[in-house]
Amino acid sequence: MLLSETAASIKSMEIRGAGRIARAAVEALADYAKNLDASDPETFKREMQRAADILTGTRPTAVSLPNAVRSVMRALDSFESVEAARDAVLARAAEFVDHSEHAVERIAAIGARHISDGDVLLTHCNSEAALGCILEAHRQGKEFEVYATEVRPRGQGLVTIRTLNDAGIRTNYIVDSAVRYFINDVDLVFVGADAIAVNGAVVNKIGTAQIAHAAHEARTNVIVAAETYKFAPRTILGELIEIEERDPDEVLPRAVAEELPFVQVRNPAFDVTPAEYVDLIVTEQGAIPPGLAYTVIRDCLGWKIEELR
Amino acid sequence: MLLSETAASIKSMEIRGAGRIARAAVEALADYAKNLDASDPETFKREMQRAADILTGTRPTAVSLPNAVRSVMRALDSFESVEAARDAVLARAAEFVDHSEHAVERIAAIGARHISDGDVLLTHCNSEAALGCILEAHRQGKEFEVYATEVRPRGQGLVTIRTLNDAGIRTNYIVDSAVRYFINDVDLVFVGADAIAVNGAVVNKIGTAQIAHAAHEARTNVIVAAETYKFAPRTILGELIEIEERDPDEVLPRAVAEELPFVQVRNPAFDVTPAEYVDLIVTEQGAIPPGLAYTVIRDCLGWKIEELR
Amino acid sequence: MLLSETAASIKSMEIRGAGRIARAAVEALADYAKNLDASDPETFKREMQRAADILTGTRPTAVSLPNAVRSVMRALDSFESVEAARDAVLARAAEFVDHSEHAVERIAAIGARHISDGDVLLTHCNSEAALGCILEAHRQGKEFEVYATEVRPRGQGLVTIRTLNDAGIRTNYIVDSAVRYFINDVDLVFVGADAIAVNGAVVNKIGTAQIAHAAHEARTNVIVAAETYKFAPRTILGELIEIEERDPDEVLPRAVAEELPFVQVRNPAFDVTPAEYVDLIVTEQGAIPPGLAYTVIRDCLGWKIEELR
Amino acid sequence: MLLSETAASIKSMEIRGAGRIARAAVEALADYAKNLDASDPETFKREMQRAADILTGTRPTAVSLPNAVRSVMRALDSFESVEAARDAVLARAAEFVDHSEHAVERIAAIGARHISDGDVLLTHCNSEAALGCILEAHRQGKEFEVYATEVRPRGQGLVTIRTLNDAGIRTNYIVDSAVRYFINDVDLVFVGADAIAVNGAVVNKIGTAQIAHAAHEARTNVIVAAETYKFAPRTILGELIEIEERDPDEVLPRAVAEELPFVQVRNPAFDVTPAEYVDLIVTEQGAIPPGLAYTVIRDCLGWKIEELR
Amino acid sequence: MLLSETAASIKSMEIRGAGRIARAAVEALADYAKNLDASDPETFKREMQRAADILTGTRPTAVSLPNAVRSVMRALDSFESVEAARDAVLARAAEFVDHSEHAVERIAAIGARHISDGDVLLTHCNSEAALGCILEAHRQGKEFEVYATEVRPRGQGLVTIRTLNDAGIRTNYIVDSAVRYFINDVDLVFVGADAIAVNGAVVNKIGTAQIAHAAHEARTNVIVAAETYKFAPRTILGELIEIEERDPDEVLPRAVAEELPFVQVRNPAFDVTPAEYVDLIVTEQGAIPPGLAYTVIRDCLGWKIEELR
Amino acid sequence: MLLSETAASIKSMEIRGAGRIARAAVEALADYAKNLDASDPETFKREMQRAADILTGTRPTAVSLPNAVRSVMRALDSFESVEAARDAVLARAAEFVDHSEHAVERIAAIGARHISDGDVLLTHCNSEAALGCILEAHRQGKEFEVYATEVRPRGQGLVTIRTLNDAGIRTNYIVDSAVRYFINDVDLVFVGADAIAVNGAVVNKIGTAQIAHAAHEARTNVIVAAETYKFAPRTILGELIEIEERDPDEVLPRAVAEELPFVQVRNPAFDVTPAEYVDLIVTEQGAIPPGLAYTVIRDCLGWKIEELR
What is the pLDDT of residues B185-236, one digit of tens each? Predict the structure, then answer.
């Protein structure tokens, strides 16, 4: 796929999901590098940067995108020849894709250690990483039970309970409003993340914050499972993570809405869970408390404050 | 309608809603008294008691039923002749019905005083008393805005937004999970109640407790609008208010459920909001803090501990 | 003083302070009753009611006024002759004045029991009742120390420290902002009240809520000293206690304010401390938790819900 | 037993326990009344009052004593002849003793309703009333498990686990420090009370407050089981409940203490649990929230503020 | 200005403000280095160290002083000749001054991103960095409103509202006690800092802690704007940040104080806001949560634990 | 002592205490290296690794053991000859032992700075590091008072009060249940740690969590004194710190237990204090907030995520 095609597919949301977006962008960059005919290193770098900018411009709020692109482009910080630069880009791209593909399984291995026999878990939405932890614990023969929410308005809970059912895990299915009713019986909450801000706040599917709040009230730990590329570097610069409001139609059929002129549907897709309601974030680099997001951005993702400006 | 018919209609839930059940039972008792042919006062009282027991036995968990029946039967605590007793029963019954019919409008008048120009309100489910307060404030010309939740699984929020829309009140419609996202912009939460326990805990539609918890976190007051016959006298004796679990089908279509043998739907209809998250309960007897439920049961409803045993 | 003169003096705030207003109104009513020439009981009652309405209309937000007036007018609930009615009014008025004059000393006796040798107290503003408790404990020979705040913008703290100094009580004088800095060394907070709502919320001098909040954070008890006529009966009907905003000039001299067109001074005289930050309210009828304000209004002040409508 | 003998036995703590003290005092008063030779009602009353004062003077901090004595003496509020007065005293005394003897079983019946199959309970110290609830639930065939603490320094936990063991109830025995470790698995805490103050604060065996605090943190309800005569009337007057410090020897053998001149043993027998950490107080008059202690003192125990002064 | 003159001016507080002190010290060191005649590198270093010690000794509690001095002195960790050392010192000094002068504008750029149209802000005291954020957002055309406190006893709020007024920003001016009254309408609190401890605690103008506490209660975020040289390195060693108590005269005129022998004025200039009430600290190095103060001290300021001993 | 002997002594708990175990293991490794006859570097490294594995296998839950062993083994990351490797191992071993032996005194120096004249401290169990801080402050002439708990079931408090008494420090000795009773008079809590997890949770003697919780409720700071080798690296991988349950006999004599078939003793030796109840952890590397455990493990202890897998 040409770079322009990949860019278009990300823009149109044909390519979706933090991991898939990241890998597609990286592969597009690698492909572009492979075919880039440049007379000298400076030209090579300049052209690559142009390509990188096109990719990061496709979805400004997708946090994995700049993290992925930058991970590859770092190869061009210093180099001697066009060929060396090309090789470095290709090597980094391959490493990123490999790393990304294994990230979830590393997270699963770490997260599963927190699950014990007899536990009652709760999960919300349909996070590959969070479910990874639960499925891995099940594979290890641990016996436990899961509560899964419905997740209005898109109903991702249905996908989740199918997965859990197929694995043979005892699952309770509840409406989103029923979390506080059952949380006193829950030992551990496992959720994913769409983005994590520098203050450790976790942006995730609408409803997550209420669940974490109810868990905190009942002294139930909350574990967020997230690849490090979910950490949002520009929040260091004070940039707010934009919360997308989706189509009203998801909540109220257009036909009904039209009969109700005084009613407006508000449909935010995500909410923000403050760091104080999160016990641990399990990443492929290990489990860390949410307060260390700054360290992840600087040390694991390798951003420098100057680059972000 | 004969007493046996009324009893059957309450049992089958043809007659529903705390107020309607209470009034139907009272009217059935009055009717029964009118036609009761008794030779002496003792016989009259005994027969009336039998009738009362039939009515209260129809739905043991409907909290308005014993309150209503007892309110009438108290007429028989002392009397001199069959006729005097009959008259007393009829008078009390008429008074109860009248009082009950005006209760909501009295609540509305009191609750509306808490609403000010520019306020943002939030309501959950479709409570006649809570909506009464909001509509009354609107009638008084106050300008405000309302957030209304969807209320899964039965979707009573749709009824609520129709009512608000018809009154011309600016309304925002959100999924149940989105309450914490918006609560910082809300000034006041108004909800109804199905029952109120002696410790001031409010039993109401599933999700209410999460809303009240989120409101408390944001220093937003929560007002419960409820007729006094919602206060559950037998909680003084330690009796727990039973939380009904409704048909799984409401949450997950049977056809889907059958494909998922490891999944069980849990569908509690109500939850319990602790008194510490409720600022005031507005009743037709005035606004009181939740901690005074015992006083309402004893002084407003007139129960004596001996009667409850 | 004629009734019209008393009314005028209350309106112009010549007569100030909850106790003084209450006693002046009661004495004006007694005086009016003494001289009222009425042909029959009904006329007497009607004229008295007219007088009562004039008085309560002078300062609609002064909570002691309706409490005092009603305490006297209750004499006219039932009577047989003009003379009997007049006597009853005079007797009740005399009783009210006597009771009111002794209320603070009774509060002092109760409140002082909470102070122990070695205690560190904190007080805000210049409450006769709160200072009464402190001075009484000092008279009993208890050794303790007091923190007193400055109380911007009116500086009532200066009056307070003069009183404490004259009594020979070791006192620390601090700005309002310094309360949280010292509160960990404080054992007990004593403040007064301007009004108490049915949910136990205490309306008192601006700054009280911050102090009570800081005290709660440090597990320091807060005692409110208040005569029962500070309890606001109409809050049972949902009526909000109006918070007076006073002259901007108190905060920013007019000359300076005029140079600053984009600046508006907000000068609320009171704030509202929620019941959960108050340990006890010491009244002349005994110490009660704030949650029982409803009981005080109904049982001590004798209001019936019907009268309030 | 003569009145003077009873008084001596209470003073020397030969007669101990709130219930036993109360009944002994009442029986002594009845006995005294039976044999009192008085020429006229006034003399009878005066002599009885003298006897009552002797009894209440024996242990000024035993809260059941004044409650019991006053319950009998109220018979002398109005009467016509010596014989009528004597009869009234005897009748009230008999009623009190009967009531007191049945109080625990009434509490047990109410408290047991809060226990459900599968529950995990926790109890501290060795409260007859709290254990009554647990044993009654067991008698009703409910299946549950209990955690019982050791209760340093006197080790009353050993008595408790013997009782539970003999009843065949599955019991876990833990040191006092381990409560927070296990509390997340506990559904309900049941403790007794030595006294309850007007603000709902519960005075009970040292350690109770830490347990209630840990329970609150984990959203675990705390139920206090206590006869109404544990409510301390004079706390309405601001009187503090004195916390007894017991013999250091209970904590550190005297021989060891003597080697350690810089070490002082502090051995308070009780601590004070604030009302906000208590869900319900189960009394023989029904279950009430702690905020209503004032109502119990005034309405159930019948104290008037004037009598207390 | 000679080094000794600069030292004297810092000591006498002629030179004030963390930034100005820091830059003056650095310039004095540069000046001293420029003119220092040393035969060999070791002598040069020894003399420079003597000069550095003089400067840091002038105000032991000014946290920017050691940070600034050390930033320059680090140039002498390794070097080869007197000239190289001198050049390194001069280069570092110039860099520090430049960095310091741009720090506030970098902070403003980051902080302004947190302000949105329609926001209500609150600020306390007169912090250049906090005001910088507000003014920058205004320059960007954002529409918002500000609450500013009076800031007793020195009244810095007056300076603040003049600045805001001159910029044409709608401002509300309130007494320090009124913060909790208005905080529910506030979206974001912006304050500066005098020093930040290793545990993230923020030392700032007296009253800041109360504001942050009230903000936390109402789920309002608190942002601290502070240059990195406000982070106090020696708190890593357990050194406490000394809170200066200023002249009593600022609070109570001496003449009045003299009449009040039992009254002592306590006038702490700062208080300590715990990390849990601070959402973010915006520095010129980016926004970080308060829990990372240790990382700032070690990584941004470059202190090694050994140097601090 | 031979490596096998050291291993056996650690296994049998003859060698106990985090510091002693760490130093014994390091010395055993050094000894083994000194005598290891290897033909080439690879063999040397392989043999050393075998020895290291034997040592870390002796007590899998002793957190100082892998930290110590790894600290030495890091010498073998790169080297050129057997002799160079041997020397490096010996140098690192010597450095570790020296560092470890001075760690407590460095901690004491830092911790003591937090203690001021007039303070009241509280300590639990018998931590060398926590007592070190207290004793150092006393040596510096500071005047303060200490509360020490009994520490059931092993009674380590007795050892603590002997130490404090011998130093001439005024000490109060209390049962574990009495902490909340006295905590309002305490200024600072000092405890040790057995292990610290990546989320900052502190594993320490059973009862510590209740104390920290009570301290937090009363705004009393909690300082944990712990050498860096107490930080548990494998918690980064999600590994839970195992809480040892010790012999029931410690709590209930076997003879009594045998009479009580329905009673089971639960005797966990440690509990887990969440990071939010800990103000600072004082290590020999400086004071840090608990949220930075990850940084300690990575930067001070030098673990890489890859090594831990």
Answer: 999 999 999 999 999 999 999 999 999 999 999 999 999 999 999 999 999 9
* CA neighbor of E191 nearest in space, from E261, E66, E279: E279
Contact A175 B158 (CB under 8 A): no
Residues from chain A contacting residue F305 (CB–CB below 8 Å) = 285-286
> Residue D110 — pLDDT band, cuts 50, 70, 90?
very high
pLDDT band at D302 (very low <50, low <70, confident <90, very high): confident
What percent of chain E is modeled with pLDDT above 90? 82
Residues of B designated as active site? 125, 194
In this predicted structure, what is the pLDDT of residue A87?
Answer: 93
For residue F162, which residues of chain D lie inside 8 Å, CB to CB?
260
Query: Model confidence over E135-172: pLDDT tens digits?
Result: 999 999 999 999 999 999 999 999 999 999 999 999 99
- For D:54-83, CB contacts with C below 8 A are none
Angle between helices D82-112 and D18-35 (to 10 degrees): 160
| Known catalytic residue at D133 | no
Q: Which residues of E are catalytic?
A: 125, 194
- Chain D contacts in chain A segment 195-254 (CB below 8 A): 217-220
In whole angstroms, what is the distance from residue F33 CA to residue F31 CA?
5
Interface confidence (ipTM) of the complex? 0.94
The answer to whether C25 and C6 are in contact (CB under 8 A) is yes
Calpha distance B152→B210 (Å, rounded): 14
Contacts of D198 in chain C (CB under 8 A): 280, 286-289
The whole-angstrom separation of Cα E211 and Cα B172 is 32
B157 shares contact with chain C (CB less than 8 Å)? no
Mean pLDDT of A99-106: 93
Domains of chain D: 3-103 (1.20.120.420), 113-308 (3.40.50.10470)
Instruction: Please indicate if any CB of chain B lies within 8 Å of the CB of D279.
Output: yes
Which tens digit of pLDDT belongs to each residue from B234-282? Answer: 999 888 998 989 999 999 999 999 999 999 999 999 999 999 999 999 9
For residue E80, the model assigns a pLDDT of 82
Between B109, B116, B289, which is nearest C294 by CB? B289
Q: Which residues of A touch E276 (CB under 8 A)?
A: 276
In terms of C-beta density within 10 A (0-12 exposed, 13-18 middle, 19 or more buried), how is residue F167 classed? Answer: middle
Chain B residues within 8 A of A168 when measuring between CB atoms: 262
* F302 labeled part of a ligand binding site: no
Q: How many CB atoms lie within 10 A of CB D259?
A: 9
Tokens of A298: 């600087």
Q: What is the pLDDT of residue D250?
A: 95
**In degrees, to the nearest 5, what angle opens at C-alpha F56 toward C-alphas F51 and F58?**
100
Contact across the interface for E109 and A239, Cβ inside 8 Å:
no
Pair E107, E174: CB distance under 8 Å: no
Tokens representing D303? Answer: 């104290």
- CB-nearest to B210 from A169, A214, A264 is A214
Substitution target from F144, F203, F216, F263 for chain D, most D beta carbons within 10 A: F263
What tokens appear for E18 in the block?
A: 């963390």
Alpha carbon separation from B174 to A26, A241, B185, F87 (Å, rounded) = 38, 21, 14, 69
pLDDT bucket at C45, cuts 50 / 70 / 90: very high
Q: Do the chains contact at A177 and B217, CB–CB below 8 Å? A: no
Q: Which of B87-91, C24-28, D18-22 has the lowest mean pLDDT?
A: D18-22
> Which active-site residues of A does the annotation give?
125, 194
Q: Which chains touch E (3 or more CB pairs under 8 A)?
A: A, B, C, F
Nearest to F150 by CA among D248, D297, E72: D248
Edge to edge, the sheet with strand C188-191 lists C286-288, C280-283, C221-225, C188-191, C120-123, C145-149, C170-174, E263-265
